[in-house]
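User: For my dataset I need records formatted as: sequence, then structure tokens, nothing else. Please produce one.
Assistant:
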Amino acid sequence: MNRNLVLPRWATFAMFLANGFGFGAWATGIAPLKAMLSLSAGSLSLALLAMSIGGLIAMQPASHITQRLGGTGKAAQLASFLFPVALSLPFLSPNLPVLMAACALLGATGCVMGVSINAHASHIETRWGAPIMSSFHAGFSLGGLLGTGFGALLLSLHVPTHLLMLPAAIAVLSIVALGAGSLGAGDTAKHEGQPIFRLPERAIWGLAAILTLSFMSEGAMADWSGIYLTTLGESPARAAAGYAAFSATMVLGRLTGDAIVHRFGRSLVIGVGCALAAIGLFLATAVPMLAAVVAGFALVGIGFSNVVPCVLSTAAQRASSPAAGIAAVSTAGFGGFLSGPPLIGAVAAHHGMRAGIGVIAVAATLAALLSLRLVPRANAVPPAAVLGTGAD
């Protein structure tokens, strides 16, 4: 452990916390937003598709933006200040076209923030000398839990829907302001001659596929878990329990994740995690009662808790640079995160919400099967070997 990295590590944790808080609050606000604009499931899926497009357009240039700004630290600072500004805009939208534009901007800022803070975290992990990526992602999950609770509180206080995200945006901005100045420079390496838009490098194709499928399920938890429970007759405030359970078990899994990954290996953690998530999703569709759905979503959280950190850490080590590797697999992953929800909306519009949730149960199952073949060398071994740059 490098003592000079203690403050940057906690500052980076704060950025993950802020990002998760924003998305957690967003998750609680989707159902009221749908009601405010009188949107059908199909119309809402268009807004979420716009969010997907904004995120995907911004994702690939993110590693180049990082280099242009002089390192992962500065890129993380800028993106973290832009994200809370974009968070409130969808709730100020008077109609679907404006909502789609606002969602596109939110998707773009959220994805650029995600790439920059993950690349910065990977740099700190490498210098730290031990697997610590799960602890950073615990910050995101803890933020999601706090953001969900905060959003549920605002709903219980009957805050007008168009003002619902303003307090959350202020909270996110406050967290960012506290930590941004201590991030440090991070990875400042230049990688000239690389195209802005490109497919993932061959070494990380399998990782990109797994991340796509697992993020598809995680995106559904953020955007559709509350709506699914409202279709079962629950109030918006009680419906927040689904995402809260998901976030709570995410936090638990990630707080213990570094030790688990070191003990059992990345391949096993990814495979078992995806399998647990699939079981939870099938439970939520098979038994459409509040207790069973909440329990199922809790299994999804514990299952996926360490899949993303394992995949991102491995991609950062195998690619030509941490930012390039994370941007490449994250483009695929966030494609799933952002395009999964509109897909579910389209399925739900024709076949109901249970069928929509069933789609992501199948996605989680495919991710588990892929992990058996495509991540054979992502195992955690003693720290020095885990964080090697070439042999893995």
